[in-house]
Design brief:
The chain is an alpha+beta fold and about 450 residues long. It folds into three domains: about 120 residues, Beta-Lactamase, CATH 3.30.450; about 150 residues, 2-Layer Sandwich (Beta-Lactamase), CATH 3.30.450; about 160 residues, 2-Layer Sandwich (Alpha-Beta Plaits). Helices cover about 40% and strands about 25% of the residues.
Length: about 450
């Protein structure tokens, strides 16, 4: 018997189901009982049939069996998922009624199949409800994040927690490659690395085909069990595409359940539900990020910078903390643009932006610094909880990095290389409002220019 049938035997077979037949045919000397698969009596004994002790002696085989008072006929009752029980037709010696056991068995089959279908539907609805509840809870967490990198990590954490795995990765499509944006386990050191979309790996297949993959055992799977890097030490794997309206944005992979059990179709459905939510959230995050970032440098734009400046200052007031601002621009940038052309000028802007970001991130549990393109060749950096002195050191580090980097066309600059000038101001030391803080940083920047450029000056 299928395990689920045995578990729900009392839900599928009502012990009194044959009472109506027994009452109808009592005067004719015939009755029916239901026996479980192990032979135990399941339904009430018909009162008009003599004692029941002999029934336990009847073997569980179809056919006719006699006893002193009459005879018995048995038939196995089977439903869609397997054998369920035995139905016994008991006939006294004086009974001349034609055999009705087939009708009794058909009644039990029809009733039990209906109950099984209802039970299965109910269990599926409960499972869907639980699944939607889990996904909804995850949605509340995910949709509140607008930063794409932060969202990728949160989606991965939600997937790993839901399916109780140690190893997982989230990859996004960028041009013709899949870039790992977040990872757990042995793939964690591969964040920001990439593979080609046409790579002979599971993730590449899922991204190209837009189809999910479930592998119960990578050691024996004939299609995907080929030792790809994604497998690590896992035996089972789930991989789903992150897609919106047929466009694949990325791939979400989980493998190696902590329990050691293989993934199931239910696990895959849950991951697909989370993946659908994740894809929409990623698309929205990208749309939002495009709206608040500069297309050329990928830094935040002026509008977003002003919004965040007000928020940073309000937080600093509440926490009695500080906000430092660094303003800088590229020295003699008009000359660089006029002599070298727009293309090389854009390369220089992108290069300086990248150095600025990589050298101004804060460590530990601190919020990352905000770097923005203020306009043209002018840039802004906001540092939360940083003193004026520490902000100066950050600015000087960036200045030296730019000065020491070779930029094509830099030799045509007045100083023979590309350089920047920087001004540093602090809230509340130099100003207590946003406009005043910007003005203080701007004045410090002009002080740096008047001091010969390629240096850092403090406000005040």
């Amino acid at each position: 018997m299928a395990p689920q049938v045995k578990t729900h035997l009392d839900a599928l077979l009502e012990p009194t189901l044959l009472d109506g037949l027994n009452r109808t045919f009592a005067s004719l000397g015939v009755g029916w009982v239901i026996r479980e698969m192990d032979g135990k009596l399941y339904s009430p004994w018909p009162e008009h049939i003599p004692g029941q002790d002999w029934l336990a002696q009847i073997p569980l085989l179809p056919g006719q069996h006699s006893w002193a008072e009459g005879e018995a006929h048995q038939k196995l009752v089977e439903i869609d998922v397997g054998p369920l029980a035995w139905v016994c037709e008991l006939r006294t010696a004086a009974c001349s009624t034609p055999l009705l056991i087939d009708h009794a068995a058909e009644l039990l089959c029809r009733e039990s199949n209906l109950r099984y279908e209802l039970q299965s539907t109910l269990e599926e609805l409960i499972s869907k409800y639980e699944e939607l509840t889990v996904v909804y809870d995850s949605a509340e967490t995910i949709v509140s994040i607008t930063d794409l990198d932060g969202m990728a990590q949160r989606i991965l954490d939600e997937a790993a927690d839901l399916l109780d795995v140690d190893h997982a990765s989230l990859m996004l499509v960028e041009k013709d490659r899949l870039v790992i944006k977040a990872a757990r386990g042995t793939r964690k050191d591969l964040v920001n690395t990439s593979i080609a979309l046409d790579a002979d790996q599971i993730s590449g297949y899922v991204a190209r085909e837009g189809k999910p993959v479930l592998v119960e055992d990578l050691a024996t799977d004939t299609v995907f069990g080929r030792g790809s890097r994604e497998e690590d030490a896992a035996r089972s794997l789930c991989s789903v595409p992150l897609q919106v309206r047929g466009t694949v944005l990325g791939v979400l992979n989980v493998n190696h359940k902590r329990s050691g059990d293989p993934f199931t179709s239910s696990d895959l459905k849950l991951l697909m539900a989370l993946g659908s939510l994740a894809a929409i959230s990623i698309q929205n995050a990208r749309t939002y990020q495009n709206a608040i970032t500069d297309r050329l440098t990928n830094l935040y734009n002026y509008g977003y910078f002003r919004e965040q400046l007000e928020r940073f200052l309000e937080t600093a007031r509440q926490e009695e903390s500080t906000v430092s601002m660094i303003m800088f621009d590229i020295d003699h940038f008009k000359n660089f643009n006029d002599v070298n052309g727009h293309d090389l000028a854009n390369v220089a802007l992108v290069g300086v932006s990248s150095l600025c970001v990589s050298n101004s991130r804060q460590q530990g549990d601190r919020m990352p610094d905000l770097v923005a393109r203020y306009g043209g060749e002018e840039f802004m950096i906001l540092l939360q909880g940083i003193s004026k002195t520490d902000a100066y050191l950050t600015a000087e580090r960036i200045r030296k990095q730019v000065e020491g980097t070779h930029y094509e066309g830099g030799q045509n600059q007045p100083m023979g290389k590309l350089t920047i000038s920087m001004g540093v101001a602090n809230f509340p030391e130099d100003a207590d409002q946003s406009e005043a803080l910007i003005k203080a940083a701007d004045q410090a920047l002009y002080k740096a220019k008047r001091s010969g450029r390629n240096n850092v000056q403090l406000a005040g």
